[in-house]
Specification:
Layout: H1 28-36, E1 41-43, E2 54-56, H2 76-104
Antiparallel strand pairs: 1-2
Helix pairs in contact: 1-2
């Protein structure tokens, strides 16, 4: 499908464990490395005559962990999972630093 998709209501992804196999946790270091490999850009689509500005990523530049086989698309849910794990990792590090600061006083 090419072009814009407009949804009134919720857009959901199938995510049940019943649909998945080879499940493994994404590690904090893996998430952080992937996050550092993301290059956020602003752009407009060539086909958009109004040249509306968008934000996102260039599929060909994505870290391998997020890339599709053709390297021309990606799943936003994959990026959300990496970002979630990275924020959890950073939150845990902040908590450790806070505890170290409390102990130093």
């Amino acid at each position: 499908m090419e072009g814009n998709v407009h949804v009134t209501g919720a857009f959901t992804h199938a995510s049940s464990i019943a649909l998945k196999e080879d499940i493994a946790k994404l590690s904090g270091p893996e998430a952080m490395t992937t996050l550092r490999g993301l290059n956020a850009v602003k752009f407009s689509y060539k086909s958009d005559q109004r040249k509306q500005q968008h934000f996102g990523f260039i599929a060909e530049e994505l870290p391998d962990i997020l890339a599709t086989a053709d390297r021309d698309r990606f799943s936003p849910m994959d990026v959300i999972a990496v970002l979630t794990k990275a924020v959890q990792e950073l939150s845990a590090e902040v908590q450790i630093l806070k505890e170290q600061l409390r102990g130093a006083h």
